[in-house]
Amino acid sequence: MKIAQVTPLYEAVPPKLYGGTERVVAHLTDALVDLGHDVTLFASAEAETRARLIPVRDQAIRLDPAPLKSDLAAHMTMLSEVLKRADDFDVIHFHTDMIHFPFFARCADRTLTTLHGRLDLKDLAGVYERWSEFALVSISDDQRRPLPLANWEATVHHGMPGEAYRFSPTSEGYLAFLGRISPEKRPDRAIEIATRLNRPLKIAAKVDAADKVYWETVIKPMIDGNPLIEFIGEIGDHQKSAFLGGAEALLFPIDWPEPFGLVMIEAMACGTPVVAFRCGSTPEIIEDGATGFLVDTLEQAVAAAGRAHLLDREAIRARFELRFSATAMARRYLDVYGDLLARRPFAEEASAETVTPLRPYEDRSFINLA
After folding, report:
1. Second label for 189, Cα 20 to 30 Å away, from 75, 250, 287, 339?
2. How far apart are CA 83 and CA 106, in angstroms?
3. Which of 7, 213, 219 is nearest to 97 (CA)?
4. How many CA atoms lie within 13 A of 204 on its CB side?
């Protein structure tokens, strides 16, 4: 198939530091190429990809030192480039929320849109009702709750390349928090859990400008003078295997309906169990008692973190490879692409060569493992 992948322009593909959506697009794109498909990636110029790259901005927005820049203008320029080439592709896969809807209405039947963010915002329902011809993919079933009547095509959980993460059969005895310093991520809970257990906690996280006050007034005072807590700051992909693999458990103490949470499967790839609050997508990702523990209270989280070392790290890695590899994710998307193609008017005239590559992925019995 000829497939276009259209990514947000906020981070590099893959991101140099923190970043979720662009990282998923990078791994999906490469996995589709490895499976033999003709893939074109629309992204900023520093993207690293095995696909054909069409650069639409000189660099990703967040790390661009220019003091004044327009993210809307950058994305509109990219959409113009995609639209000029729309007829070149069997499927155009958007990861840009809903910004493309008004421009691609004439070819909506060849598009797929994966929604990566939260959907409980006031104005979203009207948009997805107005442009209901666009097929949507959720990244967890829980993500759909605010918009149950949207045009959902499938749920496809994220995947990561196993070779990018080094399995660690043993830990170094500390707890880990990886992500972003923000109220909804609840690093304060992670600090409290570690303090109650008298266990070291390493925090690798970025501090956005919007969360600066929260960092200065809530989290930094909890860290200062606490010998158990080490704040590392933002880390890149090349540092994650050592950071996550050395942890006895990853703490995922969120307090919001997170649609997925990549760090959970990154920890699993290293063999590290996850202690996650039962919120958002976590029950779909964590197999309680096997790849980690699901908890509802701080007391349960403390108890779970205290027994995380009893879980089988090799089994955790094996579950990652089965459920959350980049190849598994790409195959699930190929199923969805095939469904789209089968519904298009020319599908009846498609050649055998066009249809045959889809056959290996039509048996979906291996998908519903959660």
Report:
1. 287
2. 10
3. 7
4. 20
| Residue with the two structure tokens 């320029």 | 77
Confirm if 180 and 205 have CB atoms less than 8 A apart: yes
Chain segment 80-123, per-residue pLDDT in tens: 999 999 999 999 999 999 999 999 999 999 999 999 999 999 99
Residue 35: pLDDT band (50, 70, 90) is very high
* The amino acid at 249: A
Tell me phi and psi for residue 34, to 5 degrees.
Answer: -65, -30
Beta strand pairing call for 91-94 and 52-57: unpaired
Nearest to 92 by CA among 50, 40, 44: 40
Query: What's the mean per-residue pLDDT of the chain?
Result: 92
pLDDT of residue 354: 46
d(CA 23, CA 17): 10
Please give, one letter per residue, the 3-state secondary structure of 280-303. CCHHHHCCECCCEEEECCHHHHHH
Beta bridge partners of 53: 41
39: tokens are 């893939």
Contact 21, 35 (CB under 8 A): no
- Cα 88 to the chain's mean position, in Å? 27
Main-chain dihedrals φ then ψ at residue 352, nearest 5 degrees: -60, -35
Cα separation, 97 vs 87, whole angstroms = 21
β-bridge pairing 38-44 and 2-6: parallel
Percentages of the chain per state (helix, strand, coil), in multiples of 5:
40, 20, 40
Give the CA angle between residues 244, 257, 219 to the nearest 5°.
55
